[in-house]
Amino acid sequence: MSNLPKIAWIGLGIMGSPMAENLIKAGYEVTGYTLEADKLDRLAAAGGTAAASIADAVRAADVVITMVPASPQVEAIAYGPDGILENARHGALLIDMSSITPQTSIDLAANAAAKGIRVLDAPVSGGEAGAVEAVLSIMVGGEQSDFDTAKPLFEALGRTIVRCGPHGSGQTVKAANQLIVAVNIQACAEAVVFLEKSGVDLGAALDVLGGGLAGSTVLARKKENFLSRDFAPGFRIDLHHKDMGIVTDAARNVGAALPVGAVVANLVASLRAQGDGGLDHSALLRGVERLSGHGAGA
């Protein structure tokens, strides 16, 4: 039997499934629960154990990890008689890797402490590819001792792992991350349309731009999406819309101006309103194409 902590994983979506599988590959015993039966089958095929409920998943776990879309879902799985806090054992560590509001994380930590459950907020960046390749950036909020306990587990999931401060700090840094990513994708999308309308070889242009100061992880990861117009999610516009709401609200609360971020937040919202919410966030290109009267998105 392994001496590694037993893991309960709640939420096996685009990110959660490959992350849970990476823990299994690293030798962890993972019991999972999610709403989609096919995702439970996938976990079992990878060597994990499918649970019939949240309570069944978390009851014997040393560490409970959650990866769900937003604050309402975190609250739904954490609270109530069938939730994590009522069913996890005293002393368990709850690691929420969802991207939610900082205040939701702070409240969760306080409510969990009353049940004898420790909490880290640990949202990630890197998208589906980063989850599959176990090269995610993990930004963590919570107590140093809990971070130290979780560090080996995080190392099976990501490459850049940093404790950013007390509860909620991971979510604040993730909000800043999503601001930078959205603005970067929008700038890349505008450049793509500009280049194509100018008659430039787009592939060659993106190659040379990627090697200079304009290069970025966003451009490297999304270049093929731009070239092929393949917008199958990775990271859905719907979720980035949620994240832009988090960062604009949080910035307002602390008195930070987001002049460019506010514009991009509106462009993300516009794309979603036009029915593209289920597409990858690189589909911001479609919005620029529409504004330019150009391409498939027009």
Helix and strand element order: EHEHEHEHHEHEEHEHEHHHHHH
Structural class: alpha/beta
Oligomer: single chain
Number of strands: 9
Q: Which range does the strand content fall in?
A: 5-15%
Roughly how many Å apart are the termini?
A: 58 Å
Low-confidence stretches: none
| Morphology | globular
Average pLDDT taken over every residue = 96
Radius of gyration: 20 Å
- Order of adjacent strands in the largest pleated sheet: 3-2-1-4-5-6
Largest sheet: 6 strands, parallel
Helix content: 40-55%
Describe this structure in words.
It is a single chain. The strands form two sheets. The protein has a six-stranded parallel sheet with strand order 3-2-1-4-5-6, with helices on both faces. 54% of the residues lie in helices and 13% in strands. It has 14 helices and nine strands. By secondary structure, the protein is α/β, with parallel strands linked by helices. The termini are far apart. The chain has helices at 16-25, 37-45, 54-58, 71-78, 84-87, 102-113, 127-133, 144-155, 169-197, 202-210, 217-228, 237-254, 259-276, 284-292, and strands at 7-10, 30-33, 49-50, 63-66, 93-96, 118-121, 124-125, 136-141, 158-165. The mean pLDDT is 96. The longest helix is centred in the middle third of the chain and has 29 residues, at 169-197. Strand 1, helix 1 and strand 2 (30-33) form a beta-alpha-beta unit. The protein is globular. Belongs to the HIBADH-related family. Residues 6-164 form the 6-phosphogluconate dehydrogenase NADP-binding domain. Residues 168-286 form the 3-hydroxyisobutyrate dehydrogenase-like NAD-binding domain. One of its GO terms (molecular function) is 2-hydroxy-3-oxopropionate reductase activity. This is 2-hydroxy-3-oxopropionate reductase.
